[in-house]
User: Fold these one by one.
Assistant:
Number 1:
Amino acid sequence: MRVEFDRDTCIGMFQCVEEWDAFEADRDDGKADLAGSEEHDDDVFVRDVPEDAELDAKFAARACPVDAIVVYEDDEQLIP
């Protein structure tokens, strides 16, 4: 499973931070950061999700009010 986070789309509600500790609040920028991720496109950050964090990653994606977080399983989009 992997997660993609579009930081440009993020509006800084930080609901993802409450759901998964891989997300961190960057209050200076008013955006979240995805720890352990790599930037793949402009402001799109990608990382693998450990098995023990899969549910948390899904909750983080569902909690995002602007769908800035997308969860994939074997290249199939699960959420949103």
Number 2:
Amino acid sequence: MPAVTVPDITVLSRIDAVDPQTSTERPVKSLTSAPSGFEGEGFPVRRAFAGVDLTELDPFIHMDQMGEVEYAPGEPKGTAWHPHRGFETVTYIMDGTFDHQDSHGGGGRITNGDTQWMTAGSGLLHIEAPPEELVVSGGLFHGIQLWVNLPRADKWADPRYQDLRGGDVGLLTTPDSGALIRVIAGDVAGHRGPGSTHTPIALVHATVSPGARLSLPWRRDFNALVYVLAGQGTVGSDRRPIRKGQLVVLGAGDHLQVDAATSQPLAEPNLDVLVLGGQPIREPLAWAGPFVMNTRDEVIQAFEDFQAGKLGTIPSVHGAPTTLTEA
């Protein structure tokens, strides 16, 4: 899981140590284990938010951990062309390579540590797939796709695409240099990530060394979620044990704490966590497949607009798939 790293973590800016006398640590509200499934043309995923009430996730609505999988030659898979409306997709690649193209002109290739941030807004068609050379060679693939809801006022905004290079993420460490903190979006301890968001959120990938502690200041008006990408440790004021594939919803407080176990699995030398949170939108939610709206009528209209070709057309690219799917 290389993502973005540095040869000497001690040269990075350090977040201030949390003062337990003035800062309240967030407790654990719930802990769930992500079930496994398949997405698109058949690539394996863990459904990170399965079984969690949407009110606890707001403004997030869905997240898949894609892989971690070692593909044999000919095995890498992606998705067919399909529509989105009313939300944003954030695809963060830790290992491997993914190509994206959409009907609004956005797109590009993302690889180790890169993020593509697609605001569907009023609607578009898009496709995500491994490049041909990866299909031929096979190889390691591991990433995250997060769906971020849009407030009512922004659901009809023009689509937008952000290409966030891994080298642009904010890099920080803890007072003892025990953790590498990658800020992808939002503000963490006064340091901003490159992602521009409609809804105030923060998105962090942290690698915590065995026996080390990550204490992050976290906005009190944000919710706070911790998803374990690899390794094991504890989280929250009650030191709840956590392991790979588990999601923790934290309660109210001023900071969150994650501790890496001294002993880690052989294939996972560190505790890797995705930390995310945002300001809840608290608006009615009507969600069906790739359409996330405020009312049932708006969802029906989205399906009708898609079927009428109003969400865009597939660009004429030699060799590109030309079939559409509704999810």
Number 3:
Amino acid sequence: MESLLKLTRERAGMSLEHAAKRLSISPGYLLQIENGARGVGAPRATQIAELYELGREELFVPTRFMARYRSKGGKS
């Protein structure tokens, strides 16, 4: 089954290499994102969605972000 990201890129007429270059990432990294092998943070998801002229929520499933705690005696 093809991912929505791959289908969207292909519909936009972009090769994997061209899209990766526009995003300033390697084609292998973009392929991992398209295949679901690698997640992305909100800024990168927004960048990809903007490249394809779509909203981030149209291409990516929202995820929860948890606060990070300091490790040695810091306040939470």
